[in-house]
Every structure is written in structure tokens, then in C-alpha cells.
Amino acid sequence: MRNTKTLFTHMALILVVSIVASPVIMAILFSTQTPAQIFSYPPKFTFGTAMLDNYTTAWTQFHLGKYMLNSFIIAFAVTTGKTILAFTSALALVYFRFPLRSWVFVFILLTLMMPTEIMIVSLFEIVTGLGWGDSYAAIIIPFLASATGTFLFRQHFLQIPVSLLDAARIDGAGPVRFAWSILLPMSSNVIAALAVIQFVYMWNQYLWPLIVIHDSSMQVVQVGLRMIFSGQDATNWGIVMAGAIITLLPALVTFMLLQEQFSRGFALSQEK
Amino acid sequence: MQPVFKRHGTAFLLLLPTLFILTFFLYLPTIQTFIMSFYQVGFLGLSKLYVGLENYQIIFTEPEYRDIMANTLTFVLGSVTLSMGLGLAFAVLANEKITGARYYRLLLIWPYALPPAVAGVIFLFLFSAQVGIINYFLGQLFGITPDWLADPELAMTVVILASVWKNVGYNVVFYLAALQNLPGDVLEAATIDGATGWQRFWRITFPLLSPMTFFLLIMNTIAAFFDVFAFIDLITKGGPNSSTTVFIYAIYRDGFEYFKSGLASAQSVFLFLLVVVLTVLKFRLQKKVHYAN
Prior knowledge:
The complex is a heterodimer of chains A (about 270) and B (about 290). Chain A contains 15 helices and no strands. Chain A has helices at about 1-30, 35-40, 50-60, 65-95, 100-110, 120-130, 135-140, 145-160, 160-170, 175-185, 190-205, 205-210, 220-225, 235-255, 260-270. In chain A, helix 4 (about 65-95) crosses helix 8 and helix 11 crosses helix 15. The longest helix of chain A is centred in the N-terminal third of the chain and has 32 residues, at about 65-95. Chain A starts with a helix and ends with a helix. Chain B is about 70% helix and about 0% strand. The longest helix of chain B has about 30 residues, at about 65-95. At the A-B interface, helix 1, helix 4, helix 5, helix 6 and helix 8 of A face helix 1, helix 3, helix 4, helix 5 and helix 7 of B.
């Protein structure tokens, strides 16, 4: 009885897991086929003969390599900046007393209700007004502050025993030393979780880069992928699927290598 | 109460960059969106005319915008119920104590890490009328090969499926965490009393999960307003006959293709107010929800 149930669970899970994986498996298979192989009937569910061609074409002729580098620069800059700013603002909120402190915290938290995606029209005016059209500043700077990040660091700092700060002060450490040699090492878990989730979030950005970047040599890879297909019928699907696989790899590899931090991160944050 | 440093200057410096960015790139655009929603903006923003509530009147009464509202509702309802329902079912399965459970869990949630653009492109290919694998299987099994993207309802179905595939992992993670926090003794007592697995689930587990279900309902709904953009842009472009034009796509289209910033702003304000209501609800619920870890 127990064994039948276990067997049934395994079979159900294998079925579900295969269905979840099938779109990407299909994409991998067809990314290796020539147009003739893709259009053949019945379809071939095997590797085709154009793998090298399709991936090279997507990478060089459609500039996915260049777009990937752009995406990487942006995602890296935002992740680093966001982590630093969230850390410093939480530091100020927890370890300093200053006028209007709780109002500052409310001011930060309220931005959770203002998704960038909704305000694109005005944000675009502001950003182009600053002369940032077609620049990475337009993608990086508006995303550098994070209410979620500040909130998470704040929660984390509040759990750190008070005696540590006392000890640090008796030893004559100022706020900078205290933050650098005590808080920072003690926050590595929070930092890792936040960094992973922010990196994947920025890597996956689509709408905002589509709006602010018109110079195609500066475009990010998600929008670059859009440029590979032009009108459904003339599309070489093998190359498009190769592009899709190239584009998903960094996010997938990050997830697989750091899935614990990823799960912790996205269970805590709402990605802002 | 933490012992503290009392250097106001340092605190100010530490907060300055964050406050600066939040003010200029979140508060300011939000306020400007409100203001702009009362104006009619001429082509390329060359002229601005104050029109009061006219933009709102348009989005609440014109048939085109009523359709957009209905499309948004269809998408949100369809994608949220499906991805939460499947998420719960997958989580219950993966919560069984079996060997390799950890790996099954990973294999259930990974699409959540993928770029929406990739999901969009792959689904466009799978459901394409000419080369799509879905139609090959449907043809073999049932002898039908619908033209998915030419039919309004089918096109919406494809967009919903793409979004469910990509987002179901989010719900799996949260439901798994909730399932692992359930009081084991209650379930054990029920088993001793002779309750079947089915009864245990519907009478005990499901009610105990309800705070998490409400929380996820809010999070999924907020996400559904925005995350759909890449799917719409890549799979259907809002068509056929605007049948898949939802708010975020209409905001983009009106703002950046038709240059009707006023109309786009009025829609933004409407979405913003919905998000505010949902976020307030979320904060009220949050106390009742136990997070992962």
C-alpha cells in the first residue's frame, strides 16, 4: 500500500516535471535544425544538423554576444549599487537617531506601491529630460534604490544582538568600522540572497530597455531576442530558438548554482 | 532598543542616495503621472491641453477601453487561478516524503528564473500555425489544427499558458513553505480518526493554507498586471483585433506608439490605485502569513 502510493507520487512528479521542462527541451531540439528540418512533417524530435550554424549566427550575425555583454554590465551595476544603497540606508535607520527617522522609513516603504512599470510614460519624460535617452544611466540609476532591500537589511540588523554594538564602541569603533568589520560579514546571507534575485530580475528586464534604448548596439539581450524574428513566416526558427537558449542560460545557471539564495531571495522580496 | 550613533550628518549621507533616487525616479514620476492624466497631449508632446477628467471618462466608457479592462480581467483571472491551482497541486505532490524530493522541487520551480521574453518566444514557436508542435500533437490526437494566434480567445489562451508556465514556480515555493509549517499533530490526529487523504486535504490542509492563498492571490494579481507585457509584445502584439490588449500593453501603445500620454497616464493612475489597494491588503495579511525559512 505504502509502496504503491510512493510509486504513484514518483510517476506523477516525473510526468509534471517533464511537462514543465518540455517547452525548453523542444526549443533545444529545434535550435539545432535547419529550416527544412523544422518544416518537415512529421516534425523531427531529434537533434538536427544546424546546431553550430544556428548558434553562431544568433551570436554573431544577430549580435546576441554584444547584447549579453550589455545586459551583464547593467545587471551587475544595478545589483552592486542596489545592495550598497540598501545596506547603507538600513544602517542609518537602525543605528542612528535623527529627526523624522520613522517618517523616512515610511517614505521608503511607500515606494513599494509605485511600480516603475506603471509610470513608464512619466519616467521616460524625466529620464530623457535629463539627457539620459539611449544611455545605461537610464536603465541603471532609476533602479538603484530598493525599498525591499532596505527593509530586509533593517530586519536583519534588528536581530543582531545589541551587545555587539556595545562591544564595538568600547573598542572605540566608529560607525564605518562597525559596519565594515561587523555588520557586513554578518550579513553575507542577506547580501547573497538579494544579489542573486536582483541580478536575475535585471537580466530579465524587457519593457523599460525597449522604451529607453533605441541605439541597437546598446540594447539588452531580452530585447535583442525580439530583433531576431521578423514576421512569422520568414523567420528562421532554428536561429530564434538558439537565441532563446543563449538568452536563458545565464539566468538558469545562476538559479541552478545558487538556488538556495535564489529561493530565499524571492521568497522574501518582491523584486523591487 | 538599539544603542545608537548620534551623528546626524553621517546618517544623512548614508540615506541621501536612496532618498534621492526614490524621490526622483518613483515619487516624481508618480506625481507627474497624476498631473498628466488631466491633460490631452498633442502629437510628440508639442502641446498640452487641460481636459480635466476627460481621459478617465474615455477609459471608463469608450468600448475600446472597456474591452481592455475586460481583457485584463480575463488574463488576471485565468493566469492567477491556473498558476495558483497548479502551484498548490505541484507543491502537495512535492511535499510527499520520497527520495529525491529536493530535486523534484528544483525541477518544478526553475522556469520562474527564466526571462519572460524567452518564454514568450518559445510559446510563439510552439503555438505557431505553420510549424508549431502543439498543432502537430493536436492534429495527431484529435484531427484539429487551430490557428491559435488568429483567434481572439485562443490567442488569450496562449498568453495565459505562457505566463502560467513561467510563474507557477513562484506559487510552488510559497505553498511548499506553508505546507512544511503545517502542524503535524493535527494531521496525524485526523489520520488516526480515519480521515482519508482527500478529506485531510480539503478539511484541514486547505483551510490552514488560506492565509497563504490570500497572500499569493494578491502577489500574483499585482504581478499579472505587469509581467504579461513581454508575452503580449512577443506573442500577439495585442491582437488579433485587440483581443489581448491589456492595460500595461495599452499604456505602452498609447504612450509610445500613439503618443497619447494623457490617456496612457489615466490608465497608469487606475492601475496604480489598484496596486495601492492590493498592497495595503497585503500588509494587513502579512502578519498572518509565515514565510519560507
